[in-house]
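hiii so um. not sure if this is the right channel but i have a protein structure encoded as tokens and i wanna go backwards to a sequence. like what aa goes where. can anyone help
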């Protein structure tokens, strides 16, 4: 039940749903609260009461914080104002929240003189918005304003269509032939556990960035605006900084934004809802500013064919323009140096997208996700390019693309860097403070400046010059060196030996790198036991064990250069499966705390339930190759409070452990995360932090920032000799603790196989 009453010009509301809570609301907020309660009363279903109570509390709290403009003007309490670049510099896109309504709102805008504070109603243009979905109790509105003039001051305000308006906001259009913009990444409000502190850090970064670059045409965000994809409190904190209402922001969908709540809040131009869309968060989109083309991808979609189609179709649709610069933006950095740099999601995106990025001639790719800073060398065909003409450290008329990964803009979370430096990283740093970048765009120059917010120090600068009047001279080739990532090849197709790749390095007469074209390379071998294709070394059909030498010839002009030789060893190989997919597992799904005894080989699991893999819920949950669920597992009985951890154990026999070699793997399907033990010793974990112990109350999302594995594939993790040392003669036991991502998780899945090589 509910009670609402008026006092001293304010409304108060008490919602009695499985307990009472009091919130102080403005008049506009009270209307929204009524909507929340009415929807709750109409749609509350058995088992959903607790979730609704939590949602109601969250919604009311965000109303108290989120309707930022209602304090200045209660007549129209618009909130979450998303002000974005339009399809080109003559347009701006708007989206905002209001209390639930059936009437679409409006945008009014007018050209003004510099310094004007009063909104010129008589000169204003009014644009009707359209309604779209929003959170319970609210409506979202979208509108586009057009025919904006360059280098002009404007004011705008938002209205309810009944003559009630917010206060007015300023913005200024710039000269699109020479302009600048601010780039930020991963505000991820809420990731620290303190929304207010993250908001302060986010506001500080934006204030500093705009203070440093007040003439910016727009702000560009590389994704993860919030941490919890459904949290309106976090969205309210994200939208709080004042610069977001004076400077349009081109946002990107991050892995923490990947749900329909993102689409509620943002209105982007030229969006293709069919390409790149993931969980109804939104598709790929593009816009232009002057002679620069910007493309923005939703990299949560693990369907690179869609992104490639979007980029190619956009290039074709805009082919009539002579673009001086092309910039690509997406969230999951494919050239980074911290926790996510080697994830399968990232490496797959790199492999699939780079050829198209090269083909379409992008000058820069701007990314986030890895909460650290990386700027690459100019990159082409997956290789760093260093032999273009330089003016100091400035590349002139270079080939390839520079990739830049921005650090967090709020300071809510930082990742440690990988120990080994990547060959593509020109600059890699973890300053442990928020950073931002200003990007200056001129007809012949693209300049990037990165700043830290604690000292406001310029910590990295880079620029590209493209000027056809400057003649470029490439220093001549002097030496060629051949390298390989492995020199052992199996004679038979196998699951263990890594794919062997060759790498050629050229040195020029000045001692610098000489970039070798793949078209100029011919590989030579001492026998026909191996074959080389696209730089990869494979055993030929029917090859016998033995040794083979490989070297390369590089044609440069009229001269042929010969590399050093590398010796490869061909070895015989045999492997066997210790545990097949679809095997019988014992499992416990009662949400109890089993401490650590349950992982031991001699633990008595005879009173646990038993069934064949795959195990999980619901029945139609499946993975390719492993198939749908065969054994249904419980989740605790409460749809809104699913148990965090389910226990699984499977036994298998080893006749003679001395016959097992030093290579192994586990191949599995899991939803959502797993830690796997062999005879009481941990041998691998997936979607969980690399260190630390986690138990029956730990949801994956609460303890880990790992990428979720795609539900369209199974995973494989290789085991080394140390892990295989835990095998023994007789019965062996694998114990898997499978964690749900959160208490609302809709599914669970577990099955695996284990294989080893034989001596």
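sure thing!! here u go:
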């Amino acid at each position: 039940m509910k009670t609402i009453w008026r006092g001293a010009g304010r409304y108060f509301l008490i919602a009695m749903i499985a307990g009472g809570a009091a919130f102080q609301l403005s008049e506009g907020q009270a209307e929204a609260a009524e909507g929340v309660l009415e929807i709750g009363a109409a749609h509350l279903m058995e088992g959903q009461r607790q979730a609704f109570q939590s949602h109601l509390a969250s919604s009311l709290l965000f109303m108290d914080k989120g309707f930022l403009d209602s304090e200045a003007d209660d007549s129209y309490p618009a909130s979450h104002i998303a002000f974005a670049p339009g399809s080109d510099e003559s347009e701006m896109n708007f989206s905002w929240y209001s209390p639930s309504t059936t009437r679409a709102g409006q945008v009014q805008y007018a050209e003004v003189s510099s310094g004007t504070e009063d909104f010129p109603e008589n000169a204003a243009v009014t644009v009707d918005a359209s309604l779209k979905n929003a959170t319970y109790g609210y409506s979202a509105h979208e509108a586009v304003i057009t025919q904006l003039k360059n280098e002009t001051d404007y004011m705008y305000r938002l209205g309810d269509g009944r003559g009630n308006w917010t206060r007015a906001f300023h913005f200024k259009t710039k000269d699109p032939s020479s302009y600048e913009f601010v780039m930020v990444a991963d505000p991820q409000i809420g990731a620290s556990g303190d929304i207010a502190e993250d908001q302060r850090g986010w506001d500080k970064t934006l204030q500093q960035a705009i203070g440093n670059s007040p003439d910016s045409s727009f702000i560009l965000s590389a994704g993860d605006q919030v941490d919890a994809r459904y949290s309106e409190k976090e969205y309210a904190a994200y939208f709080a900084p004042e610069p977001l209402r004076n400077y349009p922001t081109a946002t990107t969908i991050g892995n923490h934004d990947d749900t329909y709540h993102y689409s509620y809040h943002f209105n982007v131009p030229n969006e293709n809802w069919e390409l790149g869309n993931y969980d109804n968060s939104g598709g790929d989109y593009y816009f232009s500013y002057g002679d620069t083309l910007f493309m923005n991808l939703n990299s949560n979609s693990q369907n690179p064919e869609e992104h490639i189609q979007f980029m190619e179709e956009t290039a074709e649709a805009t082919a009539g323009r002579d673009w001086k610069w092309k910039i690509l933006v997406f969230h999951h950095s494919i050239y980074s140096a911290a926790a996510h740099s080697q994830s399968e999601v990232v490496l797959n995106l790199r492999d699939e997208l780079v050829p198209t990025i090269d083909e379409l001639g992008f000058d820069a790719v701007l990314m986030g996700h890895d909460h650290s800073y990386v700027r690459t060398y100019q990159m082409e065909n997956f290789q760093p390019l260093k032999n273009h003409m330089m003016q100091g450290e400035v590349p002139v008329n270079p080939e390839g693309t520079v990739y830049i990964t921005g650090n967090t803009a709020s300071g809510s979370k930082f990742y440690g860097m990988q120990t080994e430096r990547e060959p593509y990283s020109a600059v890699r740093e973890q300053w442990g403070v928020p950073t931002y970048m200003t990007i200056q765009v001129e007809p012949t120059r693209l300049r990037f400046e990165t700043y830290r917010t604690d000292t406001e120090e310029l910590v990295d600068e880079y620029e590209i010059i493209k000027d056809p009047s400057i003649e470029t001279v490439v220093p001549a080739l002097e030496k060629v060196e051949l390298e390989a990532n492995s020199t052992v090849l199996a004679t038979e197709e196998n699951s263990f030996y890594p794919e062997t790749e060759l790498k050629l390095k050229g040195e020029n007469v000045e001692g610098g790198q000489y970039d070798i074209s793949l078209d100029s390379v011919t590989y030579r071998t001492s026998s026909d036991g191996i074959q080389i294709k696209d730089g990869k070394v494979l055993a030929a059909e029917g090859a016998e064990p033995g040794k083979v030498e490989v070297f390369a010839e590089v044609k440069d002009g009229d001269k042929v250069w010969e590399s050093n030789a590398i010796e490869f060893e061909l070895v015989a190989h045999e492997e066997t499966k210790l545990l097949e997919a679809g095997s019988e597992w014992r499992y416990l799904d009662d949400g109890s705390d089993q401490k650590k005894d349950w992982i031991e080989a001699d633990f008595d699991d005879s009173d646990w339930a038993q069934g064949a893999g795959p195990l999980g819920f619901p029945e139609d949950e499946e993975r390719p190759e492993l198939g749908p669920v065969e054994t249904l597992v419980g989740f605790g009985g409460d749809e809104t409070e699913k148990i965090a951890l389910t226990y699984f154990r499977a036994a298998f026999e080893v006749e003679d452990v001395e016959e097992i070699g030093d290579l192994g793997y586990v191949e599995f399907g899991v939803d959502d995360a797993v830690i796997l033990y062999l005879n009481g010793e941990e041998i691998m974990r997936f979607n969980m932090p690399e260190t630390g112990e986690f138990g029956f109350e730990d949801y994956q999302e609460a303890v880990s920032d790992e990428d979720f594995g795609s539900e369209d594939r199974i995973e494989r993790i290789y085991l080394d000799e140390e892990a295989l040392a835990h095998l023994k003669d007789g019965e062996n036991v694998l114990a898997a603790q499978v964690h749900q991502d959160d208490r609302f998780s809709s599914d669970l899945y577990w099955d695996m196989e284990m294989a080893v090589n034989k001596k």
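oh and The first strand starts at residue 2 and ends at 7.
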